[in-house]
Design a protein that fits this description.
mainly beta, 6-stranded mixed sheet, 3 helices, 14 strands
Length: 332
C-alpha cells in the first residue's frame, strides 16, 4: 500500500507522511466509515484525493458515487496482505480427552464471492419471419412550385415571306409647258438697183421647248435588300444591277432637279444616286431617318441620245414600299 501511495502522491507526500495518512485512514476515517460505506468484494475501499490541497474523502463507489473533476480517484484494500506461513511446531503430547463441548451454533455466512466473468455468447437465434406490411401513409403536402427556368435561346430567323403583290403604277407627271417661239430674224435691206443685194444673215434659232419629267418607282423593297436599282417606269422590286434596270433616253439633254420620295418615314438613311451608262454621277440625295423626301438641286448630268439611265438605292431603313425618283430632262 505504501509504495502505491508514494507513486500516487509524488512530491506532495513523503514516505513518512504516507504512513501517517494510511494510519489515519485505516484507524480513523476507514474505521468510522465501515458501518456506512460498503467495500467491494475483497475489502477494497475507494477515496477521492483533491488536487490541489491534498484532502482525501471516502465515497461509496458501489452506490454510484464518483470523484469530482478536481479530484483523483484512489483505492486500497481493507484487509492487509496475508502473512507468510510460519514453521510447523513440534507435536505436543496428547492431553486428556476433554468433555464433549456443546454443539456450536452455525457460523456466520462467508462473504459473497466475486462475480464470475461473462459466459460465452449463445448462438444466434433464427431470423424471425417478415412482419405484416404497414398501412400506406397519407400523401405528403404538395411541394412549393419551383422557380421558372432560364429563358431559352433565341430561335433561328424564320424564312423570308413570299413576295407581296405589285402595287399600282403611279400616274405620269404632267408635261411641261412649251417654251415661247423665238423671234424671226430681221429682214436685210433691199439691194440697189442693178446688182443684186447680198442675202441677209439668218436670224438666231428660238429656244427649245420646256423640260420633260422622267422617273421610276418600285412597289416593294425587301428588308434584306441592302442595295439595288430602279429604272424608268414601274417595277415590283429592285434589280441587282444598273444594267438590268437601265432605260435608254431618246434625246440628248441635261438631267437636273433630282428628287426621291418614300411613302412612310425612313427608319434609317436611304441613299439615291443617278447612274448614266452604268456609272454613278454626282447627282445624289439622302432620305434621312424620320424623313420621307430628299432633293439634289445643285448637280446635273449631261445626256446624249441613246444613253441609259438608272437610279441606285442603298437601303439602311429595312422594309420600304412605293419608292419613287424623278428628274427634269431639258433637251438640247
Amino acid at each position: 500500500m505504501r509504495p502505491f501511495l508514494n507513486r500516487l502522491f509524488g512530491s506532495r507526500l513523503s514516505a513518512g507522511l504516507t504512513a501517517s495518512v494510511l494510519t489515519a485512514v485505516v484507524m480513523g476515517t476507514v474505521g468510522a466509515a465501515l458501518a456506512t460505506i460498503p467495500s467491494t468484494p475483497g475489502g477494497m475501499l475507494t477515496g477521492c484525493y483533491k488536487l490541489p490541497g491534498g484532502d482525501l474523502r471516502l465515497i461509496d463507489k458501489e452506490a454510484g458515487q464518483a470523484c469530482k473533476g478536481t479530484e483523483l480517484e484512489v483505492s486500497w484494500s481493507q484487509n492487509g496482505p496475508t502473512g507468510a506461513t510460519g514453521p510447523t511446531g513440534a507435536t505436543g503430547s496428547a492431553g486428556a480427552t476433554g468433555p464433549v463441548g456443546a454443539t456450536g451454533g452455525a457460523g456466520p455466512t462467508g462473504a459473497t464471492g466475486a462475480t464470475g466473468g461473462a459466459g460465452p455468447a449463445g448462438a444466434t437465434g433464427a431470423t424471425g419471419g417478415a412482419g405484416p406490411t404497414g398501412a400506406t401513409g397519407n400523401a405528403g403536402p404538395t411541394g412549393a412550385t419551383g422557380e421558372n427556368g432560364p429563358a431559352g435561346a433565341t430561335g433561328p430567323v424564320g424564312a423570308t415571306g413570299g413576295q407581296g403583290p405589285a402595287g399600282a403604277t403611279g400616274t405620269t407627271g404632267a408635261t411641261g409647258a412649251s417654251g415661247a417661239t423665238g423671234a424671226n430674224g430681221a429682214t436685210g435691206p433691199p439691194g440697189s438697183t442693178g446688182l443684186a443685194g447680198a442675202t441677209g444673215v439668218a436670224g438666231a434659232t428660238g429656244a427649245s421647248g420646256g423640260p420633260t419629267v422622267i422617273g421610276g418607282v418600285v412597289t416593294f423593297v425587301d428588308p434584306l435588300d441592302a442595295s439595288g436599282f430602279i429604272g424608268i417606269g414601274g417595277e415590283a422590286n429592285l434589280t441587282a444591277s444598273a444594267g438590268d434596270a437601265a432605260s435608254p433616253i431618246a434625246a440628248a439633254g441635261t438631267l437636273a432637279g433630282f428628287r426621291a420620295h418614300l411613302t412612310a418615314a425612313a427608319a434609317g438613311n436611304v441613299v439615291f444616286t443617278l447612274y448614266v451608262n452604268g456609272v454613278a454621277t454626282a447627282v445624289t440625295c439622302t432620305v434621312a431617318a424620320a424623313a420621307t423626301t430628299c432633293t439634289d438641286g445643285t448637280h446635273s448630268a449631261a445626256i446624249s441620245t441613246g444613253d441609259t439611265v438608272a437610279v441606285g438605292v442603298t437601303n439602311g431603313s429595312g422594309l420600304l414600299r412605293h419608292v419613287r425618283w424623278s428628274a427634269r430632262l431639258a433637251t438640247t
